[in-house]
Specification:
There is one protein chain. With 556 residues, the protein is α+β, with helices and mostly antiparallel strands. It contains 20 helices and 12 strands. The protein has helices at 2-9, 33-36, 40-55, 71-77, 114-120, 124-129, 135-155, 164-189, 209-229, 234-244, 259-275, 301-312, 340-344, 357-360, 368-373, 421-434, 438-451, 466-480, 487-493, 536-539, and strands at residues 82-84, 99-101, 107-109, 192-194, 206-208, 323-324, 353-355, 374-375, 391-392, 415-416, 506-512, 518-525. The strands form 5 sheets. It has a 4-stranded antiparallel beta sheet with strand order 3-2-12-11, with no helix packed on it. The protein has a two-stranded antiparallel sheet with strand order 1-7. It has a two-stranded antiparallel ribbon with strand order 4-5. Helix 8 (164-189) crosses helix 10 (234-244), helix 11 packs antiparallel against helix 12 and helix 16 (421-434) packs antiparallel against helix 18.
Length: 556
């Protein structure tokens, strides 16, 4: 894979970037990146391609057309937020549980194992056929990381205009941020990874996920350090960042972040890295549930306090964040195919992803987000577990001030690439509830619901117990953060994806049977692999060297 990543970088042979073709970065008439990138314009163009092409577009044509359709799609499928009928990339079977128990105590065994499927298909041959889910997130994130290494390797020899130090540091902060993002994605999904921080220099020493997450934190903090102390000209900073972020993404919550806004985005990302990679079991309404076998530890009070501190310095409601939009031409994902939201929008019997009953059950009665976005015009029935009465109404029904979950109109859907205000507030909420500050946590949940236009009664001051408050937190994270690449990590850390025999499982689920019966108290035993094995496309070409950890999750 180290050779493959370098091969992808060679596609980003760039010259100056043009406003009308911001992501059209290829120039086959120029033979090498080193020869072509000799000035600021060329370096900025390379830095754009490193993220939006290498990270979010290349290699993503099997289902949808971007990183946000298939890799994000797996994370929503595994959380049972959506289902799928298509057989491509195992999307119709990867999220099938081992068994479920209906309201009448009928136990239905599916004879499908998530763990067995992932391992049986983890071969280079299956990747070539489009049936190896482990391949895609690894491909994109190491391609992004490697391309950022290329930019960083060139930057000190590039002449910059204006305040040269500020301009160079803006590009460096860009690369550090996205390297932190890439390592976070690897460390949050795979049991082991590689630390690759020099252009053209690979590694065959596999390190455990915790070390990959530490690398993410390191680069995020390096970015924050530059933004806090290395930017002395706002004019030059804005000029460079305004070129790095495509103009069609500089709308809504997207735009040219101030240095303070960017640092707050980093703090939220650091809080996320900690929160989603440790257990905080909440199984069958029990805040003290214990998972008997997993690949990670349990959140401590010190961890919760750290999350609270970081999120307290995190994204504010009026901050800009990193988002994506579709464009009529030269974008990095399309309006119809490039996101989980798009692939879930429309009539459920025809949509690639079917809106899950387990998503909709988390809306409270009277929530305007539900009535604005979902309809019950058609019912999709499935023999296993994807039956649903719900479809996403394209663009919603137009209720003013209410969040829209999906649309296929070009430029209309706001895709969250990085963290958001909603995520930051819900991390504060969960930390406060876990630390005994229940009402503070409920106040934060109310703030998110108000921000998204839910229109439901406030819950702060209603005397909820810790378990009751966590139930509200879980419900809100499920509906507020869906389609943002976080759902599986939540299900995992709450203990739901683990075997019932090890203290896991998901209880109290709404479930539509193939016969059309609606159950509301279903137990689901997913028994999923919590952290994935290293893809064969990497390990076969780049076998583990001396000092490597296991590349196959040893806990399953």
């Amino acid at each position: 894979m180290k050779r493959y990543i370098i091969g992808i970088i060679s596609l980003l042979i760039v010259g100056g970037s043009a406003c009308k073709k911001e992501l059209n970065v290829g120039n086959p008439n120029l033979p090498t990146v080193d020869q072509n990138v000799t000035n600021e314009a060329g370096l900025v163009s390379l830095a754009i391609g490193a993220v939006y092409v290498n990270g979010f577009q290349k290699g993503d044509v099997w289902l949808g057309d971007s990183y946000f359709s298939l890799p994000y799609g797996y994370l929503e499928l595994l959380a049972d937020m959506v289902g799928a009928q298509s057989s491509n990339q195992l999307v119709s079977t990867i999220s099938i549980p081992e068994y479920f128990v209906l309201d009448n105590n009928t136990k239905v065994t599916t004879s499908i194992s998530n763990i067995s499927q992932l391992r049986a298909n983890n071969t280079r041959a299956q990747t070539g056929s489009g049936y190896n889910p482990l391949y895609y997130q690894w491909l994109n994130m190491y391609a992004m990381n490697g391309a950022c290494n290329k930019v960083l390797g060139l930057i000190d020899n590039i002449p910059f205009t204006g305040n040269a130090t500020t301009r160079a540091n803006t590009v460096k902060a860009w690369c550090y941020w996205w390297k932190g993002y890439a390592y976070a994605a690897i460390g949050s999904l795979y049991y082991a990874g590689l630390i690759v921080d020099q252009d053209g220099v690979g590694s065959n020493k596999y390190v455990v996920k915790d070390s990959v997450l530490a690398a993410s934190d390191k680069y995020l903090q390096m970015a924050a350090g530059l933004l806090s102390a290395g930017i002395t000209s706002n004019e030059d900073y804005n000029a460079v960042l305004g070129k790095l972020i495509p103009s069609f993404c500089q709308v809504g919550k997207g735009g040219i972040l101030t240095t303070d806004m960017w640092v707050r985005n980093i703090n939220t990302m650091l809080a996320r890295n900690l929160l989603i990679n440790k257990l905080a079991p909440f199984v069958n309404g029990n805040p003290d549930a214990v998972i008997g076998k997993s690949s990670t530890g349990v959140m401590t009070d010190a961890d919760w306090n750290q999350v609270l501190t970081l999120a307290g310095k995190g994204i504010r409601s009026n901050d800009l964040v990193f988002t994506g939009r579709t464009a009529a031409a030269n974008g990095f994902f399309t309006a119809a195919l490039g996101s989980v939201a798009a692939l879930s929008t429309g009539v459920n019997t025809a949509a690639t992803f079917k809106i899950g009953e387990r998503l909709v059950q988390n809306f409270k009665a009277g929530d305007r987000r539900l009535t604005n976005n979902f309809n019950t015009a058609t019912t999709y029935r499935d023999d296993l577990s994807f039956g649903s009465r719900y479809s996403i109404t394209d663009g919603g029904v137009g209720t003013s001030g209410v969040y829209v979950y999906g649309t296929k109109t070009t430029g209309a859907y706001e895709l969250y690439i990085g963290p958001s205000y909603e995520e930051n507030m819900l991390m504060q909420a969960e930390a406060n509830i876990r630390l005994g500050n229940t009402n503070e946590g409920l106040t934060a949940i109310d703030a998110v619901r108000a921000y998204m236009g839910a229109g439901v009664p406030a819950i702060a001051g209603t005397g909820l117990t810790k378990a009751g408050a966590l139930k509200e937190l879980v419900m809100e994270r499920r509906v507020a953060l869906v389609f943002r690449g976080l759902s599986f990590y939540d299900s995992r850390r709450w203990g739901w994806t683990y075997d019932v025999d090890n203290g896991g499982g998901s209880y109290g689920n709404t479930f539509l049977t193939s016969a059309g019966a609606v159950n509301t108290h279903v137990l689901i035993n997913y028994d999923f692999l919590d952290y994935w094995d290293v893809p064969a496309d990497e390990s076969d070409i780049n076998p583990p060297g001396e000092g490597s950890v296991a590349i196959k999750n040893p806990n399953f």
